[in-house]
Amino acid sequence: MEEAQGEVVATEQSKMKSSKQRRNVIAFTGGAAVLVLAANLAIYAFSSHRKRKSDKKGLQGSSVRINLSASEILKLADRIVAKSKQVHDAVASVPLDKVTYENSISLMADLEAEQFALIQSCLFPKFVSDSEDVRKASVEAERRIDAHVLACSKREDLYRVVKAFSVKGDWTNPEAKQYIKCLSLEKDAGRKYKIYMRSNHIVAVLELCKVGQTRKRVAVAYGKRCGQVEQRHKYARLLGYLNFAEFALDLRMAKTSAKVFDFLEDISGSLTHLATRELSILKDIKKNEDGDLPFGIEDLLYYIKRSEAKHFDLDFKALKQFFPVDLVLSGIFKVIQDLFGLRFEEIGNVEVWHPDVSVFSAFDLTSGELLGHLYLDLYTREGKYGHTCVLALQNSALSQDGTRQVTYKSVTLTLKICIRSLSDYSDSVVCLEVCFCLQIAMALLISRLQKGKEGNPCLLRFSEVVSLFHEFGHVVQNICNRASYTRFSGMRVDPDFVEIPALLMENWCYESSILKLISGFHQDITMPIKDETCKSLKRWRYSFSSLKLKQEILYCLFDQIVHSADNVDIVELYKHLHLKVMLGLPMLEGTNPASCFPRSAIGYEAACYSRIWSEVFAADIFASKFRGNLLNHQVGIQFRNQVLAPGGAKEPIELLTEFLGREPSVQAFIDSQSQH
C-alpha cells in the first residue's frame, strides 16, 4: 500500500515537474510560445476537420470552400451577412469628427477582401454542382447576399461616414482615392448628384429623398427603363444625361456616344474597299450558279461558306484529330510561361467537387512566388453550366506596402484574423486559410468539352482551341492583377477593357509556330499539323472578315442611334443604315430590325460596340508588340506589370498608352483584315 502511495506521489510529483517545465518554457519564450500554441491549435483544428472530410489537402492561400452541402451554403451565407452587418454597424457608429481611414474605409476594404472568396464559395456551386439541391441553395444564397448588399448600399449612416472622410481628402494613395470614389455619389458639371439606374441607388432615393419631385422623376425613369427601345434615352435625361447612350457609356472606357460614333465610322470607312472586293467575289459565285438573280443579304453566309470550301483546304473534322486536349493545354501553359513568366504546376490529391476537375498552381517563373491557383472543369455533365467562361473564386489583394502578407513576420497579425474568424464563421478551415492568405488569386475555368470514349483522348474542334486560348487570357488577367483593393482586382475592371487580354491571347493560336506547339496527331503526337494547314487557318481567320465586320458595325451604329435620339423610326433607320454600311444591300422587307441582332448584343444596350472596341485594341497590342517576336518574354512581362497588374485602379486608356508608348490606334486592326 505504501509502495502504491509512493508511486502515486512520485507520479504527481512528476506531473508537477513536467507542468512546471512547460510553464518555464512558456515564461522563457514569452509571446512566441503563445504564437506557437495558437498556431498549433489552428493546425490541429485544420487537421481534424480535414480528417473528417477527406484525406485531400487544401491549397495554400485559399479561403475558397469546396463541396459545401446545401445547408452549409445557406449557413455560410447567413454568417457572411451577419459579419458584414457587424462591420458596417461599426463603421456607421464612428463620430463624424473622428473619422479616419483606419476606422472607416480600411474596415470596409478589408471586409471585401476577407469575404470575396467566401461569397464565391456560396455562388459557384450553381454552375458546377451535380446536386440540384446544392444548385438551388447556391441561388438562394446569392439572393440573400444580394439583398444584404442592397440594404447596406442605402444606409444613410454609412454614407455620412464615407462622405465625412471624402471631404477631408486624406487619401493614403491614388488607389485609395479611386476606391472611395466608388463609395460616394458622383456629381455632374452642375454639382448635381448622378443617380444610376441601379436598384441600390433607386431604392435609396425612393426611401430617403425628401424632395417629392425628385422621387417622382427617379421612379418614372426606373419604371420606364424596360419600355420601348426608342424611349430609354428620354428617361435617362431625367438623370441629367443627354440620352440613354450617354448614360450607358459614362462608366465605360469609351465615355461618350460621340467617341463611339467616330470609332465605328472610322473603321467602317476604312473597310469599304476590302468589303466591296469581297462582295464582288460572292456576287460572281451566285451569278455563275443562279444567273442574274439579285444578291441579297440572305445570300451572304451561304456564299461565304461556298467560297471558303472552294479556296481553303481545311477539313475541320480531320483537323480535330490533331488537337488532343492535354497537348493543347500543355502548349497553352508553355506560351503563358514564356510570355508572362507564369509557371503552372498541376497539384494532385486536392479536394475538388468532381473527379474530372484538375487543379494547378501558378508561380512566378523568376522568384518562385505563389501567385494563384486554377481549377479546370472542362467536361460537360448533367446540371453543369452550359457555356465556357472563367469565374474569379478569390481575388488577389495586397497590403498597403505592396506585399502579399504571406511571410512569417505577418503571422501575428493574421492570427488575430484567424481567431476572430473562428468565432465569426465557426469553422476551422476558414480559420487556417484566412490565417495564411486572403491574397492569392483563384480562378475557375468552366467548359463543356466532350470526354473521349473508350480510353481515347478528348479531341478539340479548332473553335474550342481558340476558346481555350481566349479563356486563359482571363485566367492570366485574374492571376496577374495586383491591385490593393478587392474591388479593383481579378477581372473587376472597365467592361470595355475586360475582354482585351482574352482577345489578345487568341492571336497566338493562328501562328504557325504555336499551332505546331499545341498540335499532334492523337495516335502519334510527334506529328503536328502541316505548314500549309497553318497558313490556311490564318487566311481563313480573315476570310470575308471585312463584310462580316461591316454587318457588326451596322448593328452597333443602329444601337447607338436608337439610344441617342427621340422618336426614331427604327425600320426606316435600319433601312438607311443597311444600304449605307452594307454597300447597297437592302434589308429584308417585312423583318423587325430588333430580331436581327446577334445574341451577344442582347443586354448591351448602347454598348454593342464593346466587342469591336476590344478587338481593335487587342490587334494593336499584338501587332505593335508581339507579332515580330511571338514569345518575347521582356514585352510579356511589361504587359503583365504595366497593363494587368494595376487592375481596375487606373483608367485603362492610361495603361495602354503607357504600354504602347502612344495612344491606341485602329490601323493595326484595319491592316489585319487585308491579310487574306
From TrEMBL:
One of the protein's GO biological processes: proteolysis
Cofactor note: Binds 1 zinc ion.
Transmembrane segments: 25-46
InterPro entries in the cross-refs: MetalloPept_cat_dom_sf, Neurolysin/TOP_dom2, Pept_M3A_M3B, Pept_M3A_M3B_dom
Pfam families, per the entry: Peptidase_M3 (PF01432)
Cofactor: Zn(2+)
Gene Ontology molecular function: any one: metalloendopeptidase activity
UniProt protein name: Peptidase M3A/M3B catalytic domain-containing protein
Species per Swiss-Prot/TrEMBL record: Linum tenue
